[in-house]
Design a protein that fits this description.
The complex is a heterotrimer of chains A (about 160), B (about 80) and C (about 750).
Chain A: E1 4-10, E2 13-19, H1 25-32, E3 51-54, E4 57-60, E5 73-75, H2 88-95, H3 105-118, H4 124-130, H5 142-157
Helix pairs in contact in A: 2-5
Chain B: E1 2-5, E2 19-22, H1 27-37, H2 42-47, E3 49-53, E4 56-58, E5 72-76
Parallel strand pairs in B: 1-5
Antiparallel strand pairs in B: 1-2, 3-4, 3-5
Chain C: H1 22-26, E1 42-48, E2 54-60, H2 62-65, E3 70-74, H3 85-94, E4 99-100, E5 106-112, H4 115-124, E6 126-131, H5 138-141, E7 166-174, H6 177-182, E8 186-194, E9 206-211, E10 217-221, H7 226-237, E11 244-248, H8 264-274, E12 278-281, H9 284-290, E13 296-305, E14 311-321, H10 330-337, E15 345-353, H11 368-385, H12 390-397, H13 416-425, H14 427-430, E16 437-446, E17 453-459, E18 465-469, H15 477-489, E19 496-500, H16 517-544, E20 551-554, E21 557-560, E22 571-572, H17 573-578, H18 580-583, E23 588-593, E24 601-611, E25 618-628, H19 635-654, E26 685-690, H20 712-724, H21 735-745
Parallel strand pairs in C: 1-12, 10-11, 14-15, 18-19, 25-26
Antiparallel strand pairs in C: 1-5, 2-4, 2-6, 3-5, 7-15, 8-13, 9-10, 9-12, 13-14, 16-24, 17-18, 17-23, 20-21, 21-22, 24-25
The chains are: A alpha+beta (about 160), B alpha+beta (about 80), C alpha+beta (about 750).
């Protein structure tokens, strides 16, 4: 099948790739751009391990076609830290031991960052429902929820 | 003599006994003596068993010592997740 | 092995430092199974049986091979014959021979230059099946007339007259059962059933394999145990283990399901045939259809109790299907069934049965949750009938040091009593409940494991230390190893680097399974780094010109042992390391053993639920895990194990199940339908770490990974009973089932 040329912005950098129209954005990020931070846990939009934002909107990149990225702005887990400086969410995840195996962590960080962008002071229940599309099999979510709430406090207080 | 406790499913290989007494100083000697006394136990031991000596579970340590006072159980081999 | 067990006065043990692999894992840099690429790499895709049981009459791959870019197709004909026992089982499960044994069983595989092309080619491989009668339920599979899946394969243990699907039979016990039941004031007997569940790791199986025509190969794979992968793959392909080097990726969850192989030998076979590296990554549906779910079970339990709560006798009969292959975990299920209690007479009977389902794989405390569901539910029912407090009754009968365990030996020092006392004292146990709410409790046990272990430690020129272990880090074990090495050497945590070594770098290591990593690799790490300090003491002694016996190691330095040894300022590890090239050469330590002092871990859980009488939906309101860790090396990751085990157990209790249609095909093959707990399903999970040191570990560690999944099944069932007045003896307790029970009660 003929490949289509796609130009898009990923984590502030303009990138180009050729995509088969059947390939997902997740496939393109991983296999064409070498950005393997987003993970495929299900391929059906149920697990959230492939979460990225497209023009600021949280999506499962396994449910978006690569060709749909044309002209869009995409943010992935690789863009959360500012160089060597970790984002508060990343620091709090490490501090709270909010990851065990770590496979769901990239997606959860992207999703949590999107939550705090629109709701800087979420309740525990709001965090739980926002992250209900991100499966974690290791932690029972307790430490993840605590890390997100703690990061929110720090970001609000601008420490 | 070391008293080896077997699980009761093994009684048909030991003429009905669920405790077998053998002369042995190590787990390895004990296994060998068990098979010599009751050849029917050979496939069981070959298939893999664990040995509990005084509450300590020994998987494959043939040199581990046993004494006449040891509490010895032959147990089914276990596997964790 | 005599151990100088130290249980107090720690500097690093018990602290909560950042894990060494933390930054890699929060920035997306950590490389998991599917994150590897090789030059010239092909993509492999499996062809799977759509039938539960079918004879494979012919496989025609000509149309697939005619596609440009398709490089190889393999079937069972590409694998050696003549394997026996578990080697044959694994080979047969990875690639069906004459018969497809379950829906999803691999029958062929294809490698092509792109994944899309490989998928297209897989659809063009034509398989001619003759569909055979099938059976998926364990009780049905034992009935006369059920299709025999593998006649004549039963082992020595199966008495005559049983259905040929019964592969193994186990029977054991002690005490006078009849007298025990006669002495009881109340005897109750019930049947319980649990459905198969999947480990549900978020990372599907993935590998990148390369195998040459000379039998030399390499593999990158997500696994709990790469030496297992090496041995099993080599056996399935008939190559030498030493010629296959296996490197473990970071692993995205395993829970027992990644202690065996599925795609790995097939990827190697494709690579050998195509002459190029082959990457294989499973889809979620493949994971659910064809990798290890746990067994489903059907259990009869009978128990006798006096009015005051004293247990007098207990009997369990357990039937488990482990798919179309033997080795359902009846052994450990039976051993755990009554392990919490000191009962004078116990009897166990177990049947390991074949059914047309995928080969079961270990899942967190294999067998124990099912057994606990049956026995701990019955204990609760009896406490209700006799109006007894369920925790105090458990305490009254609890196994402790010196108790003759239900599975035979005498218990060494164990911590069940301490977990029960802590649970009774916990404010959760006395908190008020609202309408339609109920509280359940249950205890559980896992015996843990030691296993083959080989660890090396090497001293760097600046005094920092590299530790190489063979147990993949699934939940923070690098941090635990570094803490133990730091403690043993008296050097900062940050000065220890822990690597997970490949199969070419260490002796054989069993997987991270059986809750053994922190116990066994930890013990070996401590012993390996102690060899470094011993050697450093020798270097200091040489320098000072005094005998090595007069030198001690303390706080990261060699020191004279006392005033008689001489007046020398301490030599730090950094000073000694900087000079090591000139004082005798490189310094390292190595330790290998199959340590056997792993102590079992007991846990007690308390759960509050609310059952909606209109819908039968159960909300979990509050949850508390109390468990014995022996010694918590990194308490945050110990809590994480407790919480994760509880969450998986809650999923098993309320929601998760394998649903088979009348055609024997799995109906819920995506996460939308096989629904594991999500964040909004659960409350915070409170934890209490009890520490009853294990004398078999230098710092008192007991494995903690598995016990936590055992109590939730019965604890939730007991809470549902308390909330809704109905007793569910079959899992999962999904809303329709609870609603039906409420309606039946009237």
């Amino acid at each position: 099948m003929t490949q289509i040329h796609v130009t898009t912005t990923v984590n502030c950098d303009e990138v180009e790739f050729l995509a088969d129209p059947r390939e997902t954005l997740l496939d393109c990020l991983r296999d064409k751009l070498g950005m393997t931070g987003a993970k495929e846990g299900c391929g059906t939009g149920d697990c959230g391990a492939c979460s990225v934002t497209v023009d600021g909107r949280l999506v499962c990149s396994c449910l978006v076609l690569g060709v749909e990225a044309q002209g869009k702005t995409i943010e992935t887990v690789e863009g959360i830290a500012d160089g060597e400086k970790l984002h508060p969410l990343q620091r709090k995840f490490i501090q709270h031991a909010a990851l065990q195996c770590g496979i769901c962590t990239p997606g959860i960080l992207v999703a949590a960052k999107a939550l705090l962008a629109q709701n800087p002071d979420p309740t525990e229940e709001e965090v739980r429902y926002w992250l209900a599309g991100n499966l974690c099999r290791c932690t029972g979510y307790d430490k993840i929820i605590r890390a997100v709430l703690d990061a929110a406090v720090e970001m609000r207080e601008g420490v | 003599m070391v008293k080896v406790h077997l699980w009761s499913g093994l009684r048909r290989f030991t003429d009905g006994a669920d405790v077998v007494e053998v002369r042995a100083r190590t787990v390895g000697e004990m296994m060998k003596a068990l098979v010599e006394a009751h050849p029917g136990l050979e496939p069981v031991i070959k298939a893999g068993v664990s040995v509990s000596v005084d509450g300590k579970l020994i998987a494959r340590g043939l040199h581990e010592p046993v004494t006449d006072d040891s509490e010895v159980f032959l147990l089914r081999q276990l596997k964790g997740g | 092995m005599p151990l100088d067990t130290k249980t107090t006065g720690f500097k690093y043990i018990g602290t909560r430092p950042d894990r060494p692999d933390g930054i890699d894992k929060v920035t997306g840099k950590a490389r998991y199974g599917a994150d590897a690429y090789a030059p010239g790499m092909l993509h492999g895709v499996m062809v799977r049986s759509p039938h539960a049981h079918a004879k494979i009459k012919n496989i025609d791959a000509s149309k697939a091979l005619a596609l440009k870019g398709v490089k190889a197709v393999v079937t069972r004909a590409d694998f050696p014959t003549g394997l026996e026992g578990e080697d044959w089982n694994i080979q047969e499960n990875c690639m069906a021979g004459e018969v497809a044994l379950y829906d999803g069983h691999a029958v062929a595989a294809v490698a092509a230059t792109s994944l899309l092309l490989a998928r297209e080619a897989a659809k063009l491989i034509e398989v001619d099946y003759e569909v055979l009668p099938h059976v998926t339920d364990v009780d049905e599979a034992m009935k006369p007339g059920a299709p025999a899946i593998r006649a004549g394969a039963a082992d020595y243990s199966v008495p005559e007259g049983l259905h040929p699907n019964v592969m193994r039979y186990i029977e054991y016990g002690h005490g006078d059962l009849e007298a025990g039941f006669a002495a009881a004031d109340l005897v109750m007997e019930n049947t319980y059933k649990t459905e198969a569940t999947h480990q549900g790791y978020i990372e599907p199986h993935a590998c990148l394999a390369q195998l040459g025509a000379d039998g030399k190969g390499e593999m990158w794979v997500c696994t709990q145990g790469h030496w297992f992968v090496r041995r099993m793959s080599a056996a399935a392909l008939g190559i030498d283990v030493a010629n296959l080097r296996v490197t473990p990726s970071e692993i995205g969850g395993g829970f027992g399901g990644k202690t065996t192989v599925f795609i790995e030998p097939v990827a190697l076979a494709l690579s050998r045939k195509a002459g190029k590296p082959v990457k294989m990554v499973m889809t979620r549906s493949e994971v659910l259809r064809a990798t290890g779910p746990t067994s489903s079970s059907s259990i009869d339990v009978k128990m006798g109790m006096k009015k005051d709560g004293t247990m007098t006798a207990a009997k369990v009969t357990m039937r488990m299907q482990g798919g179309a292959f033997p080795m359902a975990p009846i052994d450990s299920a039976l051993d755990c069934a009554f392990s919490c209690y000191n009962i004078p007479a116990v009897h166990h009977e177990g049947y390991d049965v074949l059914a047309n389902r995928p080969k079961q794989a270990a899942y967190r405390a294999p067998g124990s949750p099912m057994a606990a569901f049956a026995t701990e539910s019955l204990v609760d029912e009896m406490c209700r009938a006799l109006k007894l407090d369920p925790l105090k009754t458990r305490l009254q009968n609890a196994s402790r040091e010196g108790t003759k365990a239900s599975f035979g030996p005498t218990f060494p020092r164990i911590g069940l009593v301490e977990t029960l006392e802590a649970a009774i004292a916990h404010p959760h146990y006395a908190a008020p409940l609202g309408p339609n709410q109920g509280r359940g409790v249950a205890s559980g046990y896992w015996m843990n494991w030691g296993g083959e272990t080989s660890v090396s430690a090497a001293l760097g020129e600046d005094g920092s230390v590299t530790v190489s272990v063979g147990t993949p880090d699934i939940g923070g074990s690098r941090a635990s190893m570094a803490l133990m090495a730091a403690e043993a050497l008296g050097i900062p945590y940050e000065n220890v680097r822990v690597n997970i070594a490949d199969t070419g770098s260490l002796g054989v290591n069993e997987p991270t399974h059986g809750s053994r990593a922190t116990y066994a690799s930890g013990l070996a790490t401590i012993e390996a780094v102690k060899q470094i300090s011993t050697k450093l003491c020798q270097r200091a002694a040489d320098k000072w010109g005094i005998p090595v016996e007069a030198v001690i190691w303390e706080d990261g330095s060699a020191k004279p042992s006392g005033p008689n040894a001489g007046e020398f300022p301490p030599l730090t590890i950094g000073e000694l390391a900087a000079e090591m090239g000139g004082t005798g050469g490189p310094i390292s330590g190595h330790f290998e053993a199959t340590p056997s002092g792993h102590g079992g871990s007991f846990g007690t859980h308390i759960v509050d639920v609310e059952v909606d009488p209109e819908t039968g939906y159960t909300s979990v309101l509050r949850y508390t895990v109390v468990q014995d860790a022996g010694k918590a090396i990194h308490p945050a990751y110990v809590e994480g194990q407790f919480q994760g085990g509880a969450a998986q157990g809650i999923g098993w209790a309320l929601n998760e199940e394998y649903i088979y249609g009348a055609d024997g095909r799995l109906q819920n093959t995506v996460f939308l339908d096989y629904r594991i707990p999500v964040a909004s399903d659960l409350p915070m999970i409170d934890t209490v770490i009890v520490e009853v040191p294990n004398p078999g570990h230098p710092y008192g560690v007991r494995g903690v990974g598995e016990t936590g999944i055992t109590p939730p099944l019965p604890a939730v069932a007991n809470a549902v009973h308390a909330a809704a007045g109905v007793r569910l003896r079959s899992l999962p307790m999904s809303p329709p089932r609870i609603l039906a029970a409420i309606k039946a009660k009237g």
